[in-house]
Amino acid sequence: MGTKQFSESADNTPLSWLVQDAPEYEERIKRAQFVPPTVSIKDVHAAVPRHLFEKSTAKGLFYVGRHVGLSVLFYLFATRIDQLSWNAAAALGWSPSGRAVLSWAFWALYWFWQSVSFAGMWVLGHECGHDALSPYAWVNSVCGMGLHTFMLTPYFAWRLTHRAHHKGTNHLARDETYHPMSRSDFKKLPDAAHATKMDYKELLEETPMFTLFKMVIRQFLGFQLYLIHNRKGNPKYPPWTSHYNPDSKLFKPQDRNAIIISDMAIGSMLLFLAAWSYQTGFHNVWSLYFVPWLWAHNWIVMFTYLQHSDPTVPYYREKSWTFARGALATVDRPVFGWIGSFFWHGISSTHVAHHFFVSIPFYNLPQVTEAIKPVLGEYYCYDSTPTLRALWRSFTQCTFIEDEGDIVFFKNQRGEAVREYVEPVAEEKKAREGDDEAWKLAGF
């Protein structure tokens, strides 16, 4: 209800489209009574032409080389910013203050595009983690280790938990990331039958500035905090569960050596950054590496959060979850248009297909998406809501879920959900058939 009021109030402003919900989102809200899908993983698999499963090492390495090359060019531009500012200011006859403004403008330009490129490197490392860059395991491991280590992401550790996420997407007991808060996490909040408007107002409502502060912390630091101590991860693990601990409950005993290798790689990168800072000064390294690295984390958190966190997307408990339902609890979004397609390799615009087929290379996923749309029907979620509006909407409206119920939706700060679960006509057993085979068909 609040969403529509927001949209209508903005209709007369020139940039109203930036703060309006997309028609696809509004259409899902109209289908307020949610009947869980009974889509067959076999039917989805059968709709995809066989040649789209093929991986090309040459093509994968081309994308890696192109991306690294662009980052090098951005870096070279940054090393010449001072000279460029002097020359441009002198040619224009600008004062020292004008030259300083021009220098800041050049740095802002570098930070934006280098952060976009860094996030793209991380995406390609993610591809390697799914063995989707090349048919050769060693190529995926070498490239993935290099790309993720550069971004201070422990390759093997994150690869293992990310694969677990794919095997339990939006399963409340098994999913690894962006685990939603439940009503019981708000200790003083009464149950749904007894909670009043004042209860929600006093315990959940926030000022916009405080919400923005929390959002900034999560966007820029959230991913590293998740790696360090499982922030926003599944609460089934002990406090301070870490991706850097070889004995962590996140991993199996046989994974221990791989985790140690990841840690050694991260340690080497940190030593390189320390040596670079010692030789050239920390301010230099801060400007050239850490600022775009922080902004890249903002982009990474943004598109990974929006892939699964939406008021119209369900969460499942054990009795109702299937692999197909988890894959369909995903939203395709054209995040930042051509930037998302070119630099981030469509990680947001083809994420539904990626969840059904994790090992299909990203450059084939647009065709896969078109092939499976007819099979998925109304359960295919696409949302063209402007990215920043969608991010704010999810952050402010995806507040908590109920502690009970086989299928639940996010509720907002007023305790309202835009959709509700309706008992299906078909038997649950039919929907769950073939889940064991789903892992194989999906590429695990």
TrEMBL record:
Q: Which GO terms describe its biological process?
A: lipid metabolic process
- Write the record's keywords in alphabetical order, separated by commas: Membrane, Transmembrane, Transmembrane helix
What CDD domains would the database entry show?
Delta12-FADS-like
Q: Which GO terms describe its molecular function?
A: oxidoreductase activity
Q: Which residues form the signal peptide?
A: none
Q: Which residues does the UniProt record annotate as the domain Fatty acid desaturase?
A: 105-382
Membrane-crossing residue ranges in chain numbering: 104-124, 136-158, 258-279, 285-306
Q: What is this protein called?
A: Fatty acid desaturase domain-containing protein
